[in-house]
Amino acid sequence: MPRRAFVLALALVAATFSPAFAHEGHDHKLTGTLTEVSAGKIVVKEVKDGAIATVTLSTATRITRGKTALKAADLKVGDRVVVNVGAGKTPLAAKTVQVGAASNTR
Q1: What is the pLDDT of residues 47-58, one digit of tens each?
Q2: Is 78 within 8 Å of 103 (Cβ atoms)?
Q3: Lowest-confidence range among 1-5, 20-24, 44-48?
Q4: Cβ-proximal residues to 99 (8 Å cutoff; 6+ apart), any chain
Q5: Which of 9, 28, 46, 93 could lock onto 88 through a cystine, CB 3.0 to 4.6 A?
Q6: How far is the CA of 67 from the CAs of 6, 64, 99, 106, in angstroms?
Q7: Tell me, what's the pLDDT at 16?
Q8: Looking at residues 15-21, what average pLDDT do you find?
Q9: Residues 37, 76: contact at Cβ < 8 Å?
Q10: 10: alpha, beta or left, given left = phi > 0 and alpha = psi -120 to 50?
Q11: Distances (CA, A) of 59 to 48, 56, 98
Q12: How confident is the model at residue 105, as a pLDDT?
């Protein structure tokens, strides 16, 4: 029985610390729809869970649709996007914004 308790304790310790290391070392991406576009920021409603994320844009942010470069002014509410937010630390800052095919909103 002590061996079983040790294994259970070890599993609990591993489960406690694994989330802290699970997402380090790679860029985080938000996938969703633009709900707001303004000077220097966009608001994305995520597909995965419907969460709303505000992301700042800078002059270093690369915005593309396919292989075509866009400007921040070309972004529209309703555009489907994939936003690379680097380490994903608050405040979120976009490294790249990939815009999907033209939206059907009018």
Answers
A1: 999 999 999 999
A2: yes
A3: 20-24
A4: 63, 64, 65, 70, 74, 75, 79, 80, 81
A5: 28
A6: 55, 6, 10, 24
A7: 59
A8: 52
A9: yes
A10: alpha
A11: 28, 10, 15
A12: 55
d(Cα 19, Cα 80) in Å, to the nearest integer? 29
Report the distance separating Cα 84 and Cα 95, nearest Å: 6
Structure tokens at 85: 């937010």
Question: Please, which residues bridge with residue 80 across strands?
Answer: 33
Per-residue three-class SS string for the chain = CHHHHHHHHHHHHHHHHHHHHHCCCCCCEEEEEEEEEECCEEEEEECCCCCEEEEECCCCCEEEECCEEECHHHCCCCCEEEEECCCCCCCEECCEEEECCCCCCC
